[in-house]
Amino acid sequence: MKNGIGYHNVGDLFDSFMLVKAATKGVASNGKPFLTLVLSDTSGEIEAKLWDATPEDEELFHAEQLVKVMGEINQFRGRSQLKIHSIRQAQPTDGVQVADFIEKAPVDKEELMGRLTEIIFDMKNPNLQRIVRYFVKKYQDELGVYPAATKNHHEYVSGLLYHVVSMLNIAKELKNLYPEINKDLLYAGIILHDLGKMKELSGISAPTYTLEGKLLGHIPMMVEEIGRAAEELQIIGEEVTILQHMVLSHHGKAEWGSPKPPLVREAEILHLIDLIDAKMNMLNRTLAKVKPGEFTERMFAMDNRSFYKPTFDE
Amino acid sequence: MKNGIGYHNVGDLFDSFMLVKAATKGVASNGKPFLTLVLSDTSGEIEAKLWDATPEDEELFHAEQLVKVMGEINQFRGRSQLKIHSIRQAQPTDGVQVADFIEKAPVDKEELMGRLTEIIFDMKNPNLQRIVRYFVKKYQDELGVYPAATKNHHEYVSGLLYHVVSMLNIAKELKNLYPEINKDLLYAGIILHDLGKMKELSGISAPTYTLEGKLLGHIPMMVEEIGRAAEELQIIGEEVTILQHMVLSHHGKAEWGSPKPPLVREAEILHLIDLIDAKMNMLNRTLAKVKPGEFTERMFAMDNRSFYKPTFDE
Amino acid sequence: MKNGIGYHNVGDLFDSFMLVKAATKGVASNGKPFLTLVLSDTSGEIEAKLWDATPEDEELFHAEQLVKVMGEINQFRGRSQLKIHSIRQAQPTDGVQVADFIEKAPVDKEELMGRLTEIIFDMKNPNLQRIVRYFVKKYQDELGVYPAATKNHHEYVSGLLYHVVSMLNIAKELKNLYPEINKDLLYAGIILHDLGKMKELSGISAPTYTLEGKLLGHIPMMVEEIGRAAEELQIIGEEVTILQHMVLSHHGKAEWGSPKPPLVREAEILHLIDLIDAKMNMLNRTLAKVKPGEFTERMFAMDNRSFYKPTFDE
Amino acid sequence: MKNGIGYHNVGDLFDSFMLVKAATKGVASNGKPFLTLVLSDTSGEIEAKLWDATPEDEELFHAEQLVKVMGEINQFRGRSQLKIHSIRQAQPTDGVQVADFIEKAPVDKEELMGRLTEIIFDMKNPNLQRIVRYFVKKYQDELGVYPAATKNHHEYVSGLLYHVVSMLNIAKELKNLYPEINKDLLYAGIILHDLGKMKELSGISAPTYTLEGKLLGHIPMMVEEIGRAAEELQIIGEEVTILQHMVLSHHGKAEWGSPKPPLVREAEILHLIDLIDAKMNMLNRTLAKVKPGEFTERMFAMDNRSFYKPTFDE
Amino acid sequence: MKNGIGYHNVGDLFDSFMLVKAATKGVASNGKPFLTLVLSDTSGEIEAKLWDATPEDEELFHAEQLVKVMGEINQFRGRSQLKIHSIRQAQPTDGVQVADFIEKAPVDKEELMGRLTEIIFDMKNPNLQRIVRYFVKKYQDELGVYPAATKNHHEYVSGLLYHVVSMLNIAKELKNLYPEINKDLLYAGIILHDLGKMKELSGISAPTYTLEGKLLGHIPMMVEEIGRAAEELQIIGEEVTILQHMVLSHHGKAEWGSPKPPLVREAEILHLIDLIDAKMNMLNRTLAKVKPGEFTERMFAMDNRSFYKPTFDE
Amino acid sequence: MKNGIGYHNVGDLFDSFMLVKAATKGVASNGKPFLTLVLSDTSGEIEAKLWDATPEDEELFHAEQLVKVMGEINQFRGRSQLKIHSIRQAQPTDGVQVADFIEKAPVDKEELMGRLTEIIFDMKNPNLQRIVRYFVKKYQDELGVYPAATKNHHEYVSGLLYHVVSMLNIAKELKNLYPEINKDLLYAGIILHDLGKMKELSGISAPTYTLEGKLLGHIPMMVEEIGRAAEELQIIGEEVTILQHMVLSHHGKAEWGSPKPPLVREAEILHLIDLIDAKMNMLNRTLAKVKPGEFTERMFAMDNRSFYKPTFDE
């Protein structure tokens, strides 16, 4: 969708349907109320100001509402901002649907689920396989649709599953190159490492952090869940502790949220695969928005670096 | 017991019963075997070299054996070392017992348990009280005797319970000074905060770290235990999450092992009380070994500082 | 005073007397002058914009003036801001006084002074007692009214004395629990530790930093004062150096302003008591402004954390 | 070679041929000279003391000499040490060769070179391909045999080429998973990234750092070489600067020796692939020396961690 | 030029010619376009807003245009801002020239060049002297006019040469005080240390970073240039490596951009002289703008410190 | 004195008079007592072991005793050690004196004092001059002989004064290059900055830290002394506070012992001059002990770097 908001530049006129992600009331320096809208389509989002907003405007333009908007893209304090010329609610006759405006993983959830099932089917260690199956079943509804995060990487519908499957693909290739890897352990660790996000994040569209998410975080919550699952499945064995360790250590360092660093080979490689897939996801999506010879905007989760897109090809 | 090994100086002769804590075989630069013994009584421990050790010596002088030793205290690379003049196994007729050579908390475990019971009895919030009672019952055998650590502070028999009771005493006084504190929550957090040590450490005398202790640590293990206990007790309510947060955050910072910092008033105060009691325990025991006008040895767990003991009184 | 500005929310109308703490002139994007006022009562403060300000407005609404203001509380860049509907100077007939709008310690300065006198009376070490008495006498006018800081904790009238007395109360309880503490030394350290603030800060209402405060800081200034006092009182003895060390080290670490870390037991405990009282003061006052189930605003001096207020009671 | 020195434990007798890597003279506490020998075979190395060494011993047992040694493995200050019972120079009739005692990459240099040639053949961008060919030709003698480092990872004959080929294999798989990657750029970066080591290290057996290596380091030296090569080949184009950037940034951060962090997608992925291959090489070789259920020795280049080898299989 | 923009205060009227350094279009909250101009003279620069800008305004007021402007200096978010009352393009009849509005070094470039020539003439080591001469010749056009940076210190015409000559003067005096210094090596290092800036920065007026500057930085570029120059001049000898090391290490630490720290006496002293001259340049120019008894604005490149100007004289 | 111990290498025989700096008794692994002696002359010091020491040996060879020693220089754990062949007390007839074995500054104390007096005579600001004179008079006996430190730099007789005079020489040259410097303030700051060392260190030969030195440090002690001196001299004026600030801030950063960083131009330059002179003193003395083409030993106070001495001349 190369004609979405993410592909427009400052100075462009813009005329399209968009989804209101957030609407906040403010008062301008002239004393009149205005609305700050965050408008999105699958290519990105933009802030827009609706000046001199009436009480009716406030009712019409709220979060999760589709709108038809026309305006011009300006720059404000170094960020794009849409100056609204006109705006109206979308009508049934417009034939647009909310689902078309929410970013999704580039692969269907059915295909991702199929790939996940294959991988699990290939596992040979029964303890690991049973624990993994338990969780895939437990979260069968959410797993196909949850995002992997609220921002930065894979922050879209099916993002979590897409991230897991990408990591499994890398893991499979690394197993070929380094046969010492315990494949089942690595696969199980990858599949479970971020499942705690389903308790940490409030939902799929516009997710926020739950109270448990804020006070405990997805890592300790998932460590606890694995312990309980093993008890329920009556699995006793080192696999349980090692799997808990894989989840616990996958952020790599205490200051990044892992009270123990990786102390098992597969835990170390899980951490590295997670890094690669998260970084490639961020880099590819951000570089897609600039032209060869340009630098991207600064990327907060990449140490605030701005990346260059070379002008030559393979 | 001012006449124990901890109160002797370099140059002193020493002639007493001691407990062998560890015995390691080595080969001297002249090619002859020797034994490195760690000998202890309740006042401290010292390394000793038994040169030209025979195979019989190796059998006689092993860990957990009581011995009668005579020797001279020398200095070696800045640490005290006992030069053995003579050594023999203790005999039944000597009338000495292993228990007399292991350091214990300065208060009886019965008295500590009594104080703990009183405190729990005073709690009014039924959810918190029930969870606390569940764990005191579950660990009734170990709780009275476990150490709080393998070294640094409260590393002796009943050290964990003594630490908990000292913290509860501080908490009670702070509640008087700052009535906004939720006393039940603070008490419950103090009682549970280190119970995971009973799974992290292998036992009471000469404890080491278990596999779970090394790969997971006492904090996530205890968070998991609280979750399971609440399920078993069918307690639903914010108390469970907040208690888990109290345990999770009690080291204060991510780099000190708490993936979340304290985000509840009582979690912050729990962290501070833990600091005070651990530091006072270390300082008082270390300062007891030096005379007024002297500096202590460097204390690793106090940022490697060496403390001064003033020469004047109150 | 639950109806002060600190207890209102965005959207509320507000109509009350307030004290102008600061007034700054600006020019709006339409080229017209405006005033940015900081208005306060004992519950907190709020920024307010007076648009299209006339030269008369500038004269009427200056720092330390009481005003009657009516307006609506809006949100601007994530902070509350008062949109002024009307504003006028307070009149003698309004019956309001500046003193009623400045925050004070929750305990009377006479009562605090009484408590301080008792504590000093109990001291037995004559050198420590004489030095402490010297300073209480020297600063008898300021000690009862000075704030402990310009912001963060105890930043109100009598804040310094209130902080000292709270710390003395904690110290007394800790002495009971850890009898090894030299009570007189700890008391003297607590009483003197922050007295340098009376030279570091310019005064009581709206304090700023003096030139000495900026270039030297309250810690070295107080170390110097103790040295001079000892000379004047002809006190010779280790107490002088140790007291200077208590003040010097009370921030705990070089990077926090203490060129030497605590190297005496009572210096370490003084640092910890200071931490507890400062943190409890900040936490209690900030948590008082949110409802159960809410998080506070981010607290800069608490590592920018936002604290949660649980929904359950003791 | 499971019967090499790397597979013996403390207490074992050992009787085999070994290569002297270093020999240093010392004087024992009894005033007699001794030799400290570092003895190695392809499985590892061990320190050995030859007490009461004669001047003849000093002549016989020097670096790069093969010896027949019999002795017992002891522990000294936590490290293994060989107590020599007898030692003699190897004789021609013993039929042993130095080359059999130097560790080599697990794949032949011819096979590695073949794989490298294939990869270069597949490159399409002529500028990148020509620069890469230039260097492979320039270093054709050393490239097949140089180690990648003096210690930690790939520190053996052909280690550099083996590391490069492993990285190319990973790169190829990642290109399949993330087609946005510019394969030629990534390949060229991988092939060149560590070639400066051939100027930084003094040679193949027992390499040390050259003066240039110590004062400049392999990274700036290789950046310079690429610039000169491009001039010689009369290549003008962004490829040259980007390739220099790939080499410059491949350590990832300034504090790790890269004055610029990766600012191009392929530079970031090069850094990550380098990390993975170095870590897997270290982990696999270290874990090969312990049994399931054991922890490895502390690994300095892995943040001093000790890794656990689980007891269960796939 | 004490009457430049750098010497005016908030509230002052200002009426003078200025150079437009940058002009950016924006849209005000009332929907109308405006121009943000950065206006400068040799004493400093100021931001100015031209509200309700017409398309003609946009054409007239662009970068590198001289203008006559009248307005009032206001404060906006803590920074000075010029409120424009009137503005027009400068006319030929106004008799003003762009060169008069660009800050220059306080010493003529001819004089600086003369001093540099003298110093080089005094060098005795032929290898060092030839390399230095090579570069002075190569960059003879740029060397006299380039700035030393885009901001912070010596960021004006001839700034680089002025910085080099100041450093040479300090070096000469230190050689007198510490005769062990190798003067020729230190001189050569000073002259070459920042020459890479001529490739890193795009030009003289309003310089920005080149692609090479962003991806490689001036340090590795200059190291490469020295290597090539030595090759061209057929100089072989340790001088080349040491000179490259001087340039490479002159930022002092890896985290400041030097992959190797100074490892040669003259490299260490070069780093210190660079620090002194950069800091004195910043301090003297910033302090010149405040009166005795005042603090300067915060200086970002001096760890964000604000410096005090004492009220007393020598 | 190129034939001192500092100029000998491992393997050399050594036969000369030396001063015993320290003597410690130990017990060898064969159970016999030995003495560890630290022997010194003006070129350096070396550790020596006297095996099988008799009680008479202990009496003869104590600190501050001159001895005639013959032996061989060996290497032990990477450091030189003297293996004693024979040793005896020096006799009156040997004609050697303790003073000849203590390192001194390379310039006479009378010459240094003369230079200091000149500088003070040149000062024009009466307040600064009077304070400086007060201290030079107060410490007239110690100032000429004290070391500047116990190790690292200027750690010899008259080291403090030599350091001060070197710094004054640099200051004078910098004043010529940067006339904005307030010379009197800088001179006064240099002269006073380290005078607190005379209370921090116990004496001239083999100095240790005093109790005040350990608990307060030379910086706060000197700040206090300046305050008292000003009071005694009845000097009121900003000079006093600024001078105290100069001393307080001269270590540059809080973590290096300065609770306030330099906030006055002359304080910043004082810090830089201190750095230069300390570093040049360490570098010159350490480099004097190696030959061209060699690296020095690691220098702890230079971030543990090992410096290279180039092989070419000016």
UniProtKB/TrEMBL annotation, chains A, B, C, D, E, F:
GO terms for biological process: rRNA 3'-end processing. SUPFAM superfamilies: HD-domain/PDEase-like (SSF109604), Nucleic acid-binding proteins (SSF50249). Keywords: Exonuclease, Hydrolase, Nuclease. PROSITE patterns: HD (PS51831). One of its GO terms (molecular function) is nucleic acid binding. Residues 163-279 form the HD domain. Gene3D superfamilies: Hypothetical protein af1432 (1.10.3210.10), Nucleic acid-binding proteins (2.40.50.140). It comes from the Bacteria. InterPro entries: HD/PDEase_dom (IPR003607), HD_domain (IPR006674), NA-bd_OB-fold (IPR012340), NA-bd_OB_tRNA (IPR004365), YhaM_exoribonuc/phosphodiest (IPR050798). PANTHER family: 3'-5' EXORIBONUCLEASE YHAM (PTHR37294:SF1). This is 3'-5' exoribonuclease YhaM. It comes from Aquibacillus salsiterrae.
